[in-house]
Design a protein that fits this description.
The chain is α/β, with parallel strands linked by helices and 198 residues long. The protein has one domain. It contains 6 helices and 9 strands; from the N terminus they run ααβαβαββαβββαββ.
Length: 198
């Protein structure tokens, strides 16, 4: 039973169907549970798009994993503008336990969203912000130019790639600041410095 299956069904109608299925003994059979779990995962993969962001722009691991080992770049977005254009956005909760969902939740949508907004505590260093979008699985989502506030070049990024991005930024009517990451001389950390375009 999922909100995805019957998005327009009322809370009381869902409760009635769940109670009927419990009474029928369907949930006792482990085969039924396994099939429902597999179908649920398939539905999620076909319908839900997850766009992952981070509050942390200077984490060395993040740059290593997601920016081609510091040869890529980071795009800084305006969170307040994102709040106006997307409905489901927020920080990920990190835990050492899977979220527990109720069969009869007071707020089915909030209960359901726990599945998408909870990750293992091992990933806490990412400080992830997630945007959840229904019917956007494996699709490109356009972010308006005014949402882009800054670009940070990785400290190993090649100059021709920097120039290409700078030239593109110059065609935009909204102001976008440019920064460069550099490896700190004394600590295992990155310094983010504003780039002079003169």
């Amino acid at each position: 039973m999922s909100i995805i299956e019957w998005p327009l069904m009322t809370h009381s109608e869902r409760d009635r169907i769940i109670k009927e299925r419990i009474g029928s003994g369907a949930f006792i059979d482990s085969k039924y549970s396994k099939e429902r779990h597999e179908n649920f995962i398939k539905e999620i993969n076909e319908e839900i798009g997850i766009y992952s962001l981070s509050e942390n722009k200077s984490n060395i691991l993040m740059w290593s994993h997601y920016a081609d080992s510091h040869k890529g770049y980071c795009i800084g977005l305006d969170y307040n503008i994102l709040l106006k254009i997307v409905r489901s956005i927020g920080p990920v909760t990190y835990s050492d336990k899977f979220p527990k969902l109720s069969l009869f939740p007071k707020d089915p949508v909030a209960d359901f969203m726990q599945l998408f907004m909870t990750k293992s505590i091992d990933w806490a260093y990412e400080r992830e912000i997630r945007i959840i979008m229904r019917y956007k699985a494996r699709q490109t989502v356009k972010i308006p130019d005014e949402c882009i506030k800054e670009i940070i070049f990785g400290y190993k990024m090649e100059e021709p790639h920097k120039k290409e991005i700078i030239d593109l930024i110059k065609t935009k009517s909204t102001p976008i600041e440019i920064f460069e990451a550099t490896a700190n001389d004394e600590k295992f950390k990155l310094d983010i410095n504003k780039k002079n375009l003169r």
